[in-house]
Amino acid sequence: MKWQWRSEGDKFLNGAFFTESGPPIKQIKAPLKRNLINFKPGSYAGRLTRFSGALKCYVGRPC
Fold first, then answer.
1. Residue 18 belongs to what domain range?
2. Is the pTM of this model over 0.70?
3. For residue range 42-52, what is the model confidence (pLDDT) as tens digits?
4. How many distinct structural domains can be found in the chain?
């Protein structure tokens, strides 16, 4: 599955931005609930990104 990232009605402050990806979504029916990320307020940012960061990748091995 190739992800399509969209922003709908989000508010960005202090130079924050979001780049949508993939082709326009042409799906008419509602997407499957398992493919959606529920809205969380900005106060959740630390919890939602706590495991983010650079990957430990090595030449010649899967990342």
1. 1-40
2. no
3. 888 888 888 88
4. 1
